[in-house]
C-alpha cells in the first residue's frame, strides 16, 4: 500500500512539475537544492527507488527552465526520469530509454537503481552548480578574478 | 626586438578599438584588453611560460607549440600556435573544401527573395552579432537572415548548417576580400547588459563535467585533449562559418556552440535563443579588431 502511494506520489510530482515552471519558481528550487546532500538523497538503498525518482522529478524541471539540464551520451535527464517512471509503473528491474542521437532513434537499457541514482544526482547537481557558478565565474575572467 | 613588436601590435589594436568605444562598452573593452594581454603573454614564449600556462604539457607538446607574434594570428585558432596543426591546415587549404559553398551562397544571395534588400552590402560578417535596439535583443547573422526571410514571406532556414551556412560563407568571403575587421558595438545599456549575461554564461561552469567554455578556451587553450590542441577564445568567431572535417561540411557559430555544450554534458540551448545569441555577442566582442577570416577549415 505504502509502495503504491509512493509510486503515485512520484508519478504525480513528475507530471505536475514537468508541465511548466516559472523562472521565479526555478530559483526557489535552486535554494531548495542547495540544502540537499546529494550523496544521501540519491542513495537508492537507504531511501528506496520511488523516493529517489521523486527527488529527480522534483528538481529536474527547474534545471530545464534555467537551461542547465544535464545530458550524457545523448540522453537528457528528463528521458532518464520518464523511463524510470515507466519502470516504476511496470515494476521492471531495468529502464529502457528511447532517445534520439544525431537524428537517429536509439535505445539503451540500464538497471533501475543505477538510472535512478544518476537521474537524481544530475537533477540536484545541475541546480547546485547554478548557485556555485554565481560565486566562481569571475575567478576565471582575465583582468578580473583570474590573475596571470 | 620581438617583445617590442608584440607590445606595439597590442597597443595599436587596443588603441584602434578604443577610439571607437562609447560609454557602454567601457567594461567590455577592459575585458577585451585583458584577454589580449593574457593570450599574448601566454603564447609569446610558451617554453618560458610552461610552468604557469602549460603545466601538464609533455616535451612533445612543447615542441609543437610555436610562439605567437601578432594578435592577428589568433584568427587561425589553435593553428596560430600548433606547428603540426598549422602544416595540416595549410595543406588542406591548398584546395579549400568550402569553395563550392561560397558559390552556392552567392547564388542564394542573388536568387533568394529579400536577401539583397536586407543585406545590400554582403561584406557584413564582422558586424554580427548586433544588438537590435528595436527588438531589444542580440541578433546573430543567422537570426538576421531568418528574420529577413520571414519578413519577405518565406520559410526560415535551419540555423546550424545548409543554406544559411552557405550564405554566411559568401558574406564572410566578401568581408575577407574587402579587408574587413570584426567590429562589434555595444550601443546602449541594454546591449551592455546582454554582453554581461553572455560573459557570465561563457565563464560559468555547468554540465555533468562541470566545465565552463573558459576552462577549455581561455585557461585551457594551448593544452591538449587527446590529439587536439584547444583553441583560444581570442579570434574564435573570426573564421565562421567553418568547414569541419568532423562535420564533413559547413556549420555556423550556432552549430559549434551546440557541440561545445554537448561536450560539457548539458542539454544544448536552442540555436537562435537569447542565451546562444548573447554568448556569441560576448565572444565576437572579444575578437574586435581582428580580421574577418571566414570561411575556413577546422578539424
Features:
heterodimer, A: 148 residues, alpha+beta, two-stranded antiparallel sheet, 4 strands, globular, B: 299 residues, mainly alpha, Cytochrome Bc1 Complex, Chain D, domain 2, 2 domains, three-stranded mixed beta sheet, two-stranded antiparallel ribbon, 13 helices, 48% helix
Protein described:
- The complex is a heterodimer of chains A (148) and B (299).
- Chain A has 148 residues and is of the alpha+beta class.
- Chain A has one domain (2-140).
- Helix content of chain A is 64%, strand content 14%.
- Chain A is built from seven helices and four strands.
- Chain A has helices at residues 2-19, 23-34, 38-41, 44-47, 49-65, 77-90, 112-136; strands at 71-72, 75-76, 94-101, 104-111.
- A two-stranded antiparallel sheet of chain A has the order 1-2. Chain A has a two-stranded antiparallel sheet with strand order 3-4.
- In chain A, strand 3 (94-101) and strand 4 (104-111) form a beta hairpin.
- The longest helix of chain A has 25 residues, at 112-136.
- Chain A is globular and about 55 Å long.
- The termini of chain A are far apart.
- With 299 residues, chain B is mainly alpha-helical.
- Chain B folds into two domains: 2-96 and 187-298, Cytochrome c-like domain (Cytochrome Bc1 Complex, Chain D, domain 2, Orthogonal Bundle), CATH 1.10.760.10; 99-177, Cytochrome c-like domain (Cytochrome Bc1 Complex, Chain D, domain 2).
- Chain B is built from 13 helices and seven strands.
- In chain B, the strands form three sheets. Chain B has a three-stranded mixed sheet with strand order 6-5-7. In chain B, strands 1-2 form a two-stranded antiparallel sheet. A two-stranded antiparallel ribbon of chain B has the order 3-4.
- In chain B, a hairpin with a 4-residue loop joins strand 1 (130-132) and strand 2 (137-139).
- In chain B, helix 6 (99-111) crosses helix 9 and helix 10 (189-203) packs across helix 13.
- Chain B starts with a helix and ends with a strand.
- The model of chain B has no long low-confidence stretch (mean pLDDT 93).
- At the A-B interface, strand 1 and helix 7 of A face helix 2 and helix 10 of B.
Amino acid at each position: 500500500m505504502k509502495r503504491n502511494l509512493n509510486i503515485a506520489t512520484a508519478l504525480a510530482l513528475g507530471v505536475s512539475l514537468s508541465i511548466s515552471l516559472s523562472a521565479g519558481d526555478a530559483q526557489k528550487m535552486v535554494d531548495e537544492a542547495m540544502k540537499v546532500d546529494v550523496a544521501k538523497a540519491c542513495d537508492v538503498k537507504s531511501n528506496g527507488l520511488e523516493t529517489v525518482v521523486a527527488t529527480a522529478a522534483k528538481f529536474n524541471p527547474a534545471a530545464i527552465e534555467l537551461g542547465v539540464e544535464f545530458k550524457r551520451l545523448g540522453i537528457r535527464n528528463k528521458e532518464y526520469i520518464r523511463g524510470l517512471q515507466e519502470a516504476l509503473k511496470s515494476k521492471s528491474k531495468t529502464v529502457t530509454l528511447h532517445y534520439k542521437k544525431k537524428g537517429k532513434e536509439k535505445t539503451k537499457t540500464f538497471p533501475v537503481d543505477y538510472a535512478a541514482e544518476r537521474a537524481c544526482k544530475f537533477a540536484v547537481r545541475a541546480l547546485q552548480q547554478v548557485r556555485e557558478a554565481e560565486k566562481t565565474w569571475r575567478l576565471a575572467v582575465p583582468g578580473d578574478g583570474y590573475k596571470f | 626586438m620581438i617583445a617590442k613588436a608584440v607590445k606595439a601590435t597590442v597597443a595599436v589594436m587596443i588603441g584602434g578599438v578604443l577610439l571607437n568605444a562609447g560609454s557602454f562598452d567601457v567594461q567590455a573593452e577592459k575585458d577585451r584588453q585583458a584577454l589580449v594581454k593574457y593570450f599574448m603573454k601566454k603564447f609569446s614564449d610558451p617554453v618560458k611560460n610552461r610552468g604557469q600556462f602549460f603545466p601538464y604539457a609533455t616535451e612533445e607538446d612543447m615542441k609543437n607549440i610555436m610562439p605567437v607574434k601578432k594578435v592577428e594570428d589568433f584568427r587561425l585558432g589553435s593553428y596560430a600556435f600548433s606547428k603540426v596543426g598549422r602544416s595540416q591546415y595549410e595543406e588542406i587549404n591548398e584546395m579549400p573544401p568550402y569553395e563550392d559553398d561560397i558559390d552556392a551562397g552567392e547564388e542564394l544571395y542573388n536568387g533568394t527573395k529579400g536577401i539583397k534588400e536586407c543585406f545590400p552590402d554582403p561584406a557584413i560578417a564582422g558586424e554580427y552579432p548586433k544588438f537590435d535596439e528595436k527588438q531589444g535583443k542580440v541578433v546573430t547573422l543567422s537570426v538576421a537572415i531568418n528574420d529577413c526571410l520571414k519578413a519577405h514571406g518565406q520559410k526560415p532556414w535551419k540555423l546550424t548548417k545548409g543554406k544559411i551556412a552557405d550564405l554566411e560563407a559568401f558574406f564572410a568571403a566578401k568581408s575577407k576580400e574587402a579587408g574587413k575587421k570584426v567590429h562589434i558595438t555595444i550601443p546602449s545599456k541594454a546591449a551592455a547588459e546582454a554582453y554581461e549575461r553572455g560573459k557570465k554564461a561563457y565563464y560559468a561552469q555547468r554540465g555533468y563535467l562541470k566545465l565552463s567554455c573558459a576552462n577549455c578556451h581561455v585557461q585551457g587553450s594551448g593544452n591538449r585533449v587527446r590529439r587536439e590542441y584547444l583553441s583560444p577564445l581570442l579570434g574564435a568567431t573570426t573564421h565562421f562559418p567553418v568547414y569541419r572535417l568532423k562535420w564533413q561540411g559547413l556549420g555556423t557559430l550556432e552549430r559549434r556552440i551546440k557541440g561545445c555544450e554537448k561536450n560539457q554534458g548539458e542539454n544544448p540551448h536552442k540555436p537562435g535563443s537569447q542565451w546562444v545569441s548573447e554568448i556569441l555577442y560576448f565572444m565576437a566582442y572579444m575578437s574586435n579588431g581582428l580580421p574577418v577570416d571566414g570561411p575556413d577549415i577546422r578539424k
